[in-house]
């Protein structure tokens, strides 16, 4: 029986350690020699991994031509060479990879970056041409959000369209980066694509679907005498939309509908048929009188009512209002002031009854200071006013009057002319006013007492054609 001593055991262990140490040392020496000529692991030049590459070629290779490959998500790819964009780069003076080969073991767990300014140049227009003519820009399907869609009976959800539209600016930015860093492979992920923002499974959209079908019961009727205008049923359904997580009305469609109503119901700025005293039906020019819908505020009122999910009779909001709107939709019926510039006469009718009939004097024809024609309005009633302006000789004038009733934006109006002893006939030709409608004091006082503000004033010429149209 052989007895193994501790001495023999220690000798063998020592031998093993020396052997392993020798192997490790040999590997280290070989690695040191090897990494004297090639780059260390985890070596990057301008962002590109150049590990284990010959040192003498790494810097020089960074200025030669190379291929750039771009891979999309839907089997669309692009490959081009740097020379296709006139790529040029210059090796910086004194550029070198200063690495210590003795440190090669720790380089496997550490990263070393080298940044060199190669002064890269390329033709951006040629790059744009390559990218814009690539497969990525052909057969593009635009992304579409899931949305509510009315099928004639109820709302349903139309699913989103994912699409394949590439974010061109991002693609170009990455291509430029690849050219500058020589990181030639670009794998496009989701961030390169335009995608829908609303999906069919969106909880808010599901909630809006239920809300939209309930909203179909709503009705918005416009309180405009003579017109049956309302938003309900399919008209309302066409305006309902899901926006920013909420059910609302498409403002553009709503505004368009209100604009259509305004066009049909506005009387302001339109010609009118008028039954002239002792003449019959004529057509009169527009003026400052009439109804004009404030489209923006009216649409706002509808939006507000819809947000509360309540049916409502909408009171139109007007920029301009007349005295009355009648059942036939017109604003001129049996209460008005009538002026015939040709006959130099005025009439005031209230509810069809003639209350005033008077000769007048209007703007002087010989000085071309003619009174304008059109449908004006009694804009205000003022006592003891002073009328100011330029006289026919160019001097300033200031005339006090007891009763002043302007009818338009032209500065013209009814007033008493106490300095005149006669009215009517052809006085206006050579001795007319500066444009106002001069009345006998007693008749001016009567008109002032009886007429209401906003009463239409119809000014026309029955047998002459001298006067300009009223401003409005």
TrEMBL record:
InterPro entries: LD-transpeptidase, LD_TPept-like_central_sf, LD_TPept_cat_dom, Transpep_catalytic_dom, YoaR-like_PG-bd. GO terms for molecular function: peptidoglycan L,D-transpeptidase activity; transferase activity. Pfam families: PG_binding_4, YkuD. Coiled coil: none annotated. One of its GO terms (cellular component) is extracellular region. Keywords: Cell shape, Cell wall biogenesis/degradation, Membrane, Peptidoglycan synthesis, Transferase, Transmembrane, Transmembrane helix. The keyword Transferase applies. Pathway: Cell wall biogenesis; peptidoglycan biosynthesis. This is ErfK/YbiS/YcfS/YnhG. It comes from Anaerococcus hydrogenalis DSM 7454.
């Amino acid at each position: 029986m052989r007895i193994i001593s501790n001495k023999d055991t220690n000798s063998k262990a020592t031998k093993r350690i020396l052997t392993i140490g020798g192997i490790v040392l040999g590997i280290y020496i070989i690695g040191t020699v090897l990494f004297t000529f090639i780059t260390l692991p985890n070596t990057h030049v301008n962002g590109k991994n150049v590990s284990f590459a010959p040192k003498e070629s790494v810097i020089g290779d960074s200025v030669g031509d190379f291929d750039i490959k771009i891979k999309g998500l839907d089997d669309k790819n692009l490959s081009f060479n740097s020379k296709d964009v006139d790529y040029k780069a210059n090796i910086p003076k004194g550029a070198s990879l200063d690495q210590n080969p003795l440190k090669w073991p720790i380089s496997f767990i550490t990263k070393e970056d080298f940044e060199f300014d190669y002064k890269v140049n390329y033709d951006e227009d040629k790059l744009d041409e390559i990218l814009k003519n690539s497969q990525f820009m052909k057969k593009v399907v635009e992304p579409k959000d899931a949305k509510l869609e009315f099928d004639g009976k109820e709302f349903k959800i139309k699913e989103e369209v994912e699409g394949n539209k590439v974010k061109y600016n991002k693609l170009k930015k990455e291509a430029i980066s690849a050219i500058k860093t020589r990181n030639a492979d670009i794998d496009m992920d989701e961030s390169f694509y335009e995608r829908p923002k609303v999906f069919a499974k969106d909880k808010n959209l599901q909630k809006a679907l239920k809300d939209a079908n309930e909203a179909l019961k709503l009705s918005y009727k416009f309180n405009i005498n003579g017109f049956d205008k309302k938003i309900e049923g399919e008209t309302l359904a066409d305006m309902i939309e899901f926006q920013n997580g909420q059910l609302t009305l498409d403002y553009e469609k709503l505004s368009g509908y209100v604009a259509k109503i305004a066009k049909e119901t506005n009387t302001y700025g339109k010609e009118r048929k008028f039954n002239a005293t002792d003449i019959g039906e004529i057509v009169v020019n527009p003026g400052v009188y009439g109804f004009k819908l404030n489209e923006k505020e009216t649409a706002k009122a509808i939006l507000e009512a819809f947000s509360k999910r309540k049916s409502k009779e909408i009171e139109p909001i007007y920029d301009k209002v007349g005295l009355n709107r009648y059942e036939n939709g017109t604003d001129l019926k049996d209460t008005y002031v009538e002026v015939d510039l040709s006959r130099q006469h005025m009439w005031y009718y209230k509810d069809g009854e003639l209350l005033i009939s008077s000769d007048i004097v209007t703007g002087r024809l010989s000085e071309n200071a003619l009174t304008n024609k059109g449908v004006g309005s009694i804009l205000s009633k003022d006592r003891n006013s002073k009328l100011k302006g330029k006289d026919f000789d160019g001097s300033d004038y200031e005339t006090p009057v007891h009763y002043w009733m302007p009818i338009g934006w032209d500065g013209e109006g009814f007033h008493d002319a106490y300095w005149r002893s006669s009215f009517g006939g052809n006085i206006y030709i050579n001795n007319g006013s500066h444009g106002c409608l001069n009345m006998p004091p007693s008749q001016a006082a009567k008109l002032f007492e009886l007429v209401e503000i906003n009463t239409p004033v119809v000014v026309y010429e029955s047998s002459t054609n001298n006067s300009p149209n009223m401003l409005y």
